[in-house]
Amino acid sequence: MPASAPSFLLLLLGASRFPNSPRFADKQQRPFAGSRDLVLRYFQESLQVPSSRIKNLFDSQLPPESQLREIEEFICKNRDIQQIITYYIGHGLELDVANEREYVLACAATMEGRELKSSINIRELVETLSYVGRTKDLTFFLDSCFAGQAAAPLQGQCRSIALFAASSSLDQARAAPDAEHTEFTGGLFECLALGDAEHGPNLTLSELCTLVRAKLEAQCGEDVVRPELHVPSQRHSEPQHTPLFPNPGFRGALPIADEPAVPCLLVQIEPTTKARQRRRYRVRAWLVTSFARTTPQGDLLFDSEEENSDQPIVKDKIGEVLMQLRGIAADALRRKGILDRPDFWVELILPRELLNEPFDQHSTLGVEHPVVVRCLERLRALQMPRTKAGQLKIQLGRGRNRQSSTAAGSFMADAALRQAGRFQLLKTQQDKPCPPLIELGLSPLSGPPSAAVAAWVCQKSPTGPRVWNWLIDASTESLVCAVLDEAPSEQPQSMQGDIFHDLLRAGVPVMLWSRGSQGINTQALRQFLTQMIWGEIPERVRKTRREASMQQGAHFGRDITLLWDDPQRMPPIVPLVEPSLPKQE
């Protein structure tokens, strides 16, 4: 966390269950609880806010007045902290009281028919915070319907007050019952996980609001519920322009270990959506000369759908297409005077069903270029539009085992947050040697948390809920690489118990495996990373492939696959153009 980032007190309010309010019927229990977990994970793990500075009243059965007393005591115990973040997740209610409108926040103690007395009144909450924290800066995140209604009551005698509202005073916030998070909290923490290269080391609320709006607009189109930023009180500061949250996308603080010194041929291959064209693919390719901006800089070289929409590319022809694209890219770079020799990176974004295809062995592609693969399903979670209910429009399999958007929801904000954190650690270790492989197990990782580690994953490795909980535990955040003793299956019978799927969901950014005979290559795989420098792995894979091309017979280099997935390197499919904020009325 950058040194200039402030310290926080976090008040977490709201509920996932409302036992005394049948009108809510626990319809949003899953997304509300998932959003709570996402907030806690970010503040506890990414920002490393100690538990003594977090007051978690989410799902508390205490009546509102008792919760306010708890908040008052909590702030009095932490008088040295300037920034107080209040994050609410739940139902916002607009009540008619004596011909005036009152905005209240439902809690687990809220009783139907007595909402005014049994809910948290936003005015009383501000009065409490203003009384004990009049010299503090207050920031409210309200993930609730009609959240913009809270702007007027948020008047106090504090140093400053800012409101980041999930919805306007007229709009309902969205949370699909089977989604893992609410639409607003999911989008917010995806942006916090990835950051933005065009901003400084810490993001302001204004910058964050712009990023979240762009994110949600790209996902939802015209049906978007736009979040709003209000500044009801700025007596002594401008909270909307105060740097608050670390920006993982900031490119000035660290060298980019994965950023090649030369451009990148970025190829995305995706199955066609027409049932009669199974095993046929759309191929798009970009020549990207820089990933240093929000929208990658480069040219669209090829789109098979534009070339011939009625004739998608069959799998057997993909290798030929890649070699043609390689020649086109080399010619384009020479014309631009950027590159005199064809040694640019080739990144293949592939659906799971193609991850084991030996595209790097087609002609001299993997010999002349560092060729890495990335998982289309994981990347799509950051790109693809969502349905009106906020669910991801992606599927992870085929046939009767095809996974719905509910399963795809596992590739959402928490996965992006974990992947960004792990890859950021990998960047800091780019000049360090890889330590010996650990066995994938259920014991906490030993050694300093700042040291990146790689795990050996074999048939005997544990699977299921226990290993999933181990993968997402704070003690295993330093796991940045997995070496698999067998290639991931093309179409698993079930995602449950599929270790490759769990590694993707857990945000592990680097994986190695062999496509060939397990017995021949197991020992070579286990020794491959020995004393290798983390940042040199892609180039070492290329050298191994070159050695294989010069020898007869079986060679480990003909079968090696390297998944190298930096979440910052986004293909320019959805341009992340930052819209201007509308004027506040």
Describe it for me?
The longest helix is centred in the middle third of the chain and has 19 residues, at 318-336. Helix 5 crosses helix 6 (205-220) and helix 5 (183-194) packs parallel to helix 12 (413-428). Residues 253-260, 384-410 and 573-585 have low confidence and may be disordered. Helices cover 29% and strands 20% of the residues. The chain is of the alpha/beta class and 585 residues long.
In short:
The chain is α/β, with parallel strands linked by helices and 585 residues long. The chain contains 16 helices and 22 strands.
Radius of gyration: 25 Å
Number of helices: 16
Helix/strand-derived category reads alpha/beta
Total strand count, please?
22
> Distance N terminus to C terminus?
36 Å
Can you list the strand order of the major beta sheet? Answer: 2-1-3-7-8-10
What is the approximate shape?
elongated
Percent of residues in beta strands: 15-25%
Helix content: 25-40%
For the report, how would you describe the main beta sheet?
6 strands, mixed
What's the number of domains? 2
What is the mean predicted local confidence, pLDDT? 82
Ranges where pLDDT stays below 50 over 5 or more residues in a row are: 253-260, 384-410, 573-585
